[in-house]
Amino acid sequence: MKKTNNLASKFALAAFFALGALAVTSCNKDNNESGQELPAGNSQIIVRIAGISDGENNTSKGSKSSTSNHKTSSEKSIELVSGNGFDAVVAVDNQVPSTSKTPSLRAANGTSVSSNMAAGTNYRLFLYKKEGATYTYDNSYEFTVGQETPIQVKKGVSYKWVALSYNNKEVVADRGADDQLLLPENKDVLFASSTADLTIGDNTSPINITFNRLFSRIGIELNTKGMFGPMNSATVTVTGHSTKTATVDLTTGALVLAQAAHTPEISFASFINTSEGDASQKIAYYYTADETPQAIKVVVKDLNIKLDNGTNRVFTTSTLSQTQAISPERGKNHRLLLGLTESALTRDGVQWSRSNLYYKAGDATPYRFNPTNDFNTIADPRAYFSFKGHLPMTLASNDPKKQKDPCALVYPAGLWKTPTAAQVGAVTSRAGLLGDLLGGVLDLVLPSKTPGTSENNKALEYAGATGANPAYGDAQNTLRFNYNGSQTKVSVLSDLVSLNLGNTQGKHAAFWSSSELIDLSLLGTGVGAQSFIGYKASGLLGSATIASTGAGLLNINLLGLDVISSELMNVRCVRDESWNIASLLPGYNPEPAL
Asked: Most C-beta atoms within 10 A of its C-beta, which of 165, 194, 269, 272?
């Protein structure tokens, strides 16, 4: 048994770093957990895992001064990068997604803790016996997460404990000379130590371990939540990254950095799903003790995703290349996010989604764009919304605080919005009440065509839109509004309605704007909502495609219900030009608040 000198001062430093917490539960005197008698003079310790700290309140062990040029966890960068076929929300932050379904806990110091150590993970506990003012190494024990194996210790003795894991099934090596242990390369090294002496009495004294990371964990996240389909495959190359290991002093947690650096290979096969069975969000990790800034370059091409209709969309002509700087901090998380999203079709300065919005109940990203933009002979009730309503087939609340823009709930949050009347006006040539627009007097004789429009397979199309990509096909590479119809009569006896399009389906296209003609809060009943109306008018002297900005009749709080009674129409989204500013505000989260 080797005597460890000056350990009292080292453990004083370790107490500053540690998050390990102790909890004591009583048991029968001189009995172990199974009720069997212990040898005279002995007691036992049960070791349990509370989880892993998120690291954001953790001071790095042996790290550089706080005056270094590292980003703090409150700093972030985020931007929308335009591409050919798909765009990408590119962000650098510390919001590493959890791969555990277990809720987060809180450590004693308030730091967030995730109980996300998988069963079967190995770790080692080191015990140091207190002798006077110093501590002497006593023993070490191997443990496996998910198993509680008591260890026997002497009563009346005080100990300090240290725990170490590589967050996998790899066996942790025993201590080296002078408590120095060379750590493995590119591993998720976890460390914890007691904050106070553990004095062994008659009762079983569980040790609840909250681990900290010793290295920096850098995650590269690739998701297709904004493209509404899981990834089948892609070609992904990552360069500019490197890892270094270190030697840890078990008594303090301090690290001595190794000199040699290595570059682990990261390809598409390196990315794991963040949620079981869902390949829409993947992440690849690497770990380093080095705090030198890194310029990480990620190139994505040949992206292949599976759509809701069972077909695959393959981007053979699209490549995304991004280089972002990350300054690793020991013990902390860093994320480089590439959130891929459908690109828009642009006409007259307005960026339109390629198809209508629909709601897929039960999905993690329920707000999405239709995988095709073809006219459907069978109406899809998931695609018909009320004015200012964010759930299909459901009337909106009359309380503005309860209203949500359904387009803003498409991932990433706030990138899309319901168009204003002015944006709808960019693709219309007339305006008026709905009853005046369909079959007006002038249309009976000589219809006046909206410039740039044509009719194709029960849809109104526009020439001149940019943003085509072969992966989408003709229907989504053309600005096309299908004659899906609308429901003009809605019962307000309940806020839930059924779909009945009458004779409108196949005859006109209709989708909402976000604009009101009159402030709805000032009305009991009245004219309020503006929308797009597109149709083919046939007159005595010819026919023409017409696009109009129409106004519908709204009854507010009819029959005492706190809902807005409106027609049911499709929703077609446009890009929100204010997203670039809103996304940089504190607290912005690309995950929509559903």
From this structure: 165
